[in-house]
Amino acid sequence: MARFQTLSLVLANLLIPAAILVFATGFFPYKPFMPGLAVYEKLGWEEKMGWTKEPEPQFDRVVFMVVDALRSDFVFSSESGMSFVQGLIRSGAAIPFTAHATSPTITMPRVKAITTGSIPSFLDVILNFAESDTSSTLAAQDTWLAQLKAKQGGKLVMYGDDTWLKLFPGFFERADGTSSFFVSDFTEVDNNVTRHVPDELLNSDWNAMIMHYLGLDHIGHKTGPKGPNMIPKQIEMDGIVRDIYEAIENEDHLANTLFVMCGDHGMNEGGNHGGSAPGETSPALVFMSPKIKKITEFLVRESPIEQTSDFEYYKKIEQSDIAPTLAGLMGFPVPRNNLGVFIPEFLHFWDEGTDRARLLLHNAQQMKKIIEANFPAYSFADEVQEMDCEGSLSSGKELACKWQKAVQVMSTMATIHPQLRVQYLYDFCRTAQEIMSSTASNYDVPRLVFGTALAFLSVVLSVLAIRPDIRNPSFSGLFYTLTLILYTVLMFASSYVEEEHQFWYWLTSAYFFALFLSSVQKQWLPWPILHPAVMLLVVFRIARRWNQTGQKYAGAPDIVHSGVLEWGNNIVLWSLVGAAYMDNTIRLSRHVARSIANYWNADAEDGESERFMGTMAVLPSGVTAFIFKLAFTARDAPELVRWPNPDMMHWLESVDLVLFARMVFGGLGLSAAWLIYAEWRKSRSPKHVKGSGALALSLFDTLTLILLTQTRTSSLPLYLLFRLTTFFLTHLSTYSPSTSLSPTTITTTTLLLTHTSFFLLGNTNSISSIDLSNSYNGVAGYNISLVGLLLFVSNWAGPIYWSLAGLILLGAHGSRAHNIDVSEMDARDWIAEERAHLVRLADAEKEKGERRTGWGAWRRHVALLTLGQAAAAVAVMGACTVLRTHLFIWTVFSPKFLYAMAWGTGFHLGVTVGVGGGFWWVGGW
Amino acid sequence: MKPPATPIDTLSNDAANLYKHLHPVLILSLYAYQFSSIVADPVPALTTTLIPLAVLQIAYAAICLPPIGSSNGVGGGEKKKPGERRKAAPGKLEVSFNSKIVPAFLSLISSTLPGIPVLALSLLLFGAPVTTHHAETLLAAAHISFLATLPLVYVHGVDGGRWREIVAAQVHIDEVFGCTLGTLVGAWLGAVPIPLDWDREWQKWPITIVTGAYIGFTVGKVLGGTILKGKTVSFE
Prior knowledge:
The structure holds two protein chains of two kinds. By secondary structure, chain A is mainly alpha-helical. Chain A is 58% helix and 5% strand. Among the domains of chain A are: 57-349, Alkaline Phosphatase, subunit A, CATH 3.40.720; 566-704. The longest helix of chain A has 35 residues, at 889-923. Chain B has nine helices and no strands. In chain B, α8 packs antiparallel against α9 (207-225). Chain B is globular and about 50 Å long. The model of chain B is unreliable at 75-81 (pLDDT under 50). At the A-B interface, α21, α22 and α23 of A face loops of B.
């Protein structure tokens, strides 16, 4: 029986990653791209239109200036600092647009969209974090950079964000990349770009100069769009625009230079990006050149414009439209994977209607190839055909009809205004863009269903694994089941995906209250207001308030932003942080002291000298960890470190962070190795009593120090609240044997607290809240697996903490043994009640000791958690399958699936099963 | 120590039987009638609604429920010691005053004074806004307290031991305790619609909570008086 349960549990766990993988391949299909560079091809209708050569290019050089997170209103609104650009708009030398950026609004996918004209797949989000991945480079893809480089004498130069250098390896003649390591750097990253500009403006060998400024994005992340540095930064950017524009006006070799300034994405009111709020998807785009005056005569040239809440200024175009527009203006073929449409305003550069039609036909023919590959069932021939285009049409049919209409207009013998041809071509291009960027087109539905079915099978198997417990459902078991059912329902509601934390907070409060009721039903304590379960509620209420999270109330007041922590030169914050470090260091030193004492004599208590040695051994690691946190914060969030002494501040800023982080990890690794060795040695001694669980506890405290290192400074005091929560839970469980928490109760608590703590630390289900700042601790070069691991640990620190704390609650590891020998008691003992109490206590301790050394309790615990994880996977995958045509699929449900992937593989398999299994094993030594 | 509370039966006279069924309808009608003004401006509307709510609840208690100390109520029917002298029979009006009006006002006072602060603190612990909306939270607590605890005090009095059982949810479910459980669970469930992105006025604090409490009160009253009667809440 037990063997059957173990087998189904193992299978259930193996099915979780399989289900996720199958689903992911169907949900994020690898988009085949067409390799090779586009060349001008025969268009058809050459004779009829009298085409002999390509339309004359208008520009021979481009200066492409990307300002990271340049939201539309930063340039166009009346509150902008960019007065020079606004002057250019008024004079007609600049055409402004709002360039719609699709989600995910993070830099790498946006650069891909700008340069290839395609709409990057969601996989690029993962690849954005795994930047070194070579499959994500654009070296083999057709981009306007590749086209410009392929031109005769084509040379490219690049200054700024090194994302470009990673995407385009070996493309640039001269380059100087900057990496955005510390978002507190507002100036260096930009000066590093600007210092190259004057020299490059004198050089005449390049035909494309790319600049990517990061400072404005950093300011946004740090202080939000209304921060005090925002306007000065805009003025600085405006000055650079002025320098470049004036050079274009004055230098002969720059006379035919097109100057483009754009943002890759915008930012929300919190200054973050990644999601799809209007602010995040609305970057500014401005084309500038004295030559542009030719086409702006009849356009709206009003500037600045009153601030609007939807961030739509001037005409709204797609970000992918930049690529074909550059192609037309600079005279090269439209990149092959482009889904952008030539911006109509620029057609007025060409006076001849035939030239305009020709430009657009290039664009349309290129898009038609992609369409043909995607809808092979329909005919997209260049000849007039009979086609039934009545009634409601499928996407492919609609496109075929639109193409046919364009073909008919191109082929007609009647004399028609050339603009009419342009209009029909536009109609086709726009529909193609819309359909290809819409979502429903490229799912592999059978795989989605199969993946969901696999996850469901995992649910069934884990139910089989816990079957004996189902017959007598406990309150906690019912609560657990109810949680999973509700979770499944809520995953279909986009607002509850965004506000998932509310669900967990709501359940956790209720569950703590149920623990209170359950406890007072058994035994009434005086002062119910100080009951441990009520204290749990109080601690939890404070923790809830620490970091405001979610979308609906993003930016609402919380403790971190209340200014309380900054009182008296941040003394409050650093006292709490220091307390968290001290608490852990002291605990760890006790463990080391005990292990030293036990080294020679397994029964020995740790004495004065052992305590001293333990402290001496652990203190360096603890102090280094604290100094690392101080020095890291001094650079990452300098406003949180205000040292009264400038020398001290200076020293903090000069600390070698990589070295210090390695020292922390190394020191903790050493103490863990010692503790394991000592306990192993002890476990082999003949007198050893199995299962004290001390090692599990020591490793937990070691790991907590690593989690502290990987957590944002402002969230560190939460670990004190976690410690209090553990304390009250333990107290609740141990103050009387009759109220001891059942294993199912502990499992339910673990489920609730792992999820709750994820959100307490400030995470959400949106890409924009992923905290990257701690993922390079101790990593000097670029090591994808290490950075990935650190990234996971820093974002899942809370769940990791509670997964292991839950195990320690379950096994009561390291709890003080009372040494009650029941056999020595007899009936003459003077208080029978006291005797019964002691017997119960002894039984409870014996039971927990047995629980620790066996695998039964752990298996039941993991089986329940596997059920939870599998049910969550079914819920998320089911929602993504059913709602795959939902408006929010890419903005809400897909990021949730990415998170579900990390929960299912990294957290459940890696931490709950992997690390947790190891903990349980050493806890039984 | 008091004997464990047995489920309470409502009085069996005609008025009680009629009003027992009329009461939840009146309570819900009152709330439905006030709903639009509560949504428009919660603080004054919730304040004015409190008065008719208290009147209805006192009426319900006085008409339908056995007051504390009465022979069919809990803790009642104390045996007379043999030979104990009968007190002079009080007049009819006096009986009705002593046995009904006094407990009614006692229950109004105790559901106001310890009731509202305790429930407001509980609301805070369960996630009510800490720094803002204090009046709203207090009013929500007042509504919940009048719904959940007013009849409860009327039948159980203010005995500490009995209230321990009530707080631990150990008393048997009856119509009155059903109201209490229903109101509290309803208020808890009332938080569910708040995060939804429907952008409705009624999603603001504390309207959904109070609505949940009113609906929960009705459901709890009906279930507590019928199928759940005599059962207890267990956390095993």
